[in-house]
Predict the structure of Alpha/beta hydrolase.
Amino acid sequence: MDPELEAFIPLFPRADLTDPIAERESFAALATALPPPDTANLDVENRTVPADPDVPVRIYRPHQAQGAIVWLHGGGFVMGDLETEHPWAARLADASGATVISVGYRLAPENPFPAALDDACAVLAWAAGHAAGLGIDPERIAVGGHSAGGGLAAATALRARDERGPAIRFQLLNQPGLDDRQETWSARNFTDTPWMNRDKVTASWRHYLGSTPATPYAAPARAADLSGLPPAYIATAELCPNRDEEIAYALRLLQAGVSVELHQWPGTFHGSQAILSAEVSRRQIAELAGALRRALAG
């Protein structure tokens, strides 16, 4: 493990998601402990996207931005909101020059699949349909997210392809949760890794799926056909249960003719980029922003 990250392990809470509603407070406390992002070069606005039910979003608009990304927060499908994602959405917008539309999607277990995916797709359709008013180019809209949000972004791309929905320029998938089956080597062996381990992944999928059998729109790794999807940047953490399913998904995208940039970060664990003092974390954040900037360039 990267020694700069290892020093912080005792400070990470040992959440197990047995009671996800109670864990939301701890998750929120972690976000508020981060240094506040610099928003001086951003216009930040809260909006509500009409849907059933309506979806809250927070828009981060850099000056002279044209491209945009519909951005989905992490939290194992059960934690997180616009506030916990604020430090990351603001940093991504500022560093990439893209408008970031952060989505406050509904959380499980109160709202199991497909509630969060429906919210993500509603925001994508709204962004494409209101591109002129938002000051963005409808042909330069990406989807992306961290962790569970990365899985939701991948599922949004699948559904948009299948339903001939809005055109998506790019997928920015950071440590995405893609496969509920947990059959890979990393999923079977990483039982005591920091922040995210096998038991926690199991619990998050159980809360998200409820009594519904998993489909490709819930767990994108189950999709038989990955052709025709947008180009992707996929980032993985070495000491993460999701690592091998993410690498396998990247390879399957490549084999389906989809352009992919895959970055495996050595010495890192799931969510470790929150440790902003570590040099590897700063490189991870810069890489995400750079990949988005390149993908949405004119």
